[in-house]
Design a protein that fits this description.
Elements: E1 2-6, E2 12-20, E3 23-31, H1 34-44, H2 49-56, H3 68-85
Antiparallel strand pairs: 1-2, 2-3
Length: 87
């Protein structure tokens, strides 16, 4: 299923991604540090969504209390809760 997540507290504004059979695909960020965020998308491609969530949750950027990776973890948590509720 495709998800579109509005970020909060980061340079990126949105994250788009797909979850298929519990795996993460096609992660793209709108805004933010393009090269780093492309790298994150490639690193998580095909990975277990729960593992990605656990790995990225709590990453902080410059004392903001969040970061683009942390926002991806939040987006995945929300998406997984949605999928669990609708299964």
């Amino acid at each position: 299923m495709h998800y579109h997540y509005k970020t909060s507290g980061t340079c990126s504004q949105y994250i788009d991604f797909d979850i298929d059979h519990g795996k993460v695909y096609n992660v793209t960020f709108q805004g933010g540090c393009n090269g780093n965020l492309q790298g994150i998308g490639r690193l998580v491609e095909g990975q277990d969504a729960r593992l990605v969530l656990e790995t990225l949750h709590g990453v902080d950027c410059r004392g903001r209390g969040t970061s683009c990776p942390d926002q991806l973890a939040n987006a995945l948590a929300q998406a997984l809760a949605h999928e669990e509720k609708n299964s």
